[in-house]
Specification:
Blueprint lengths: L7 H19 L5 H20 L3 H5 L8
Helix pairs in contact: 1-2
């Protein structure tokens, strides 16, 4: 089971950045390899935000979740 380790502010910021990356890709501002990388990062950021779990936070025993 995934233990939540992301607070609401962290999740909102990640969703905003993910949306920005997706817009840059779909409007053609970032194309080619850079565009694909941004799209993959957008997907990962959105997924971790929706799950409230970041594997890197878990690995480094870090949390932005308020106790």
């Amino acid at each position: 089971m995934l233990k939540k380790n992301m607070g609401i502010t962290d999740r909102i910021i990640r969703l905003i950045i993910a949306a920005l990356f997706a817009v840059l890709y779909y409007t053609g501002v970032a194309g080619g390899t850079l565009g694909i990388i941004l799209l993959v990062l957008a997907f990962i950021m959105a997924l971790t935000s929706l799950l409230s779990f970041c594997p890197l936070y878990y690995l480094f025993k870090f949390s932005t979740l308020k106790k």
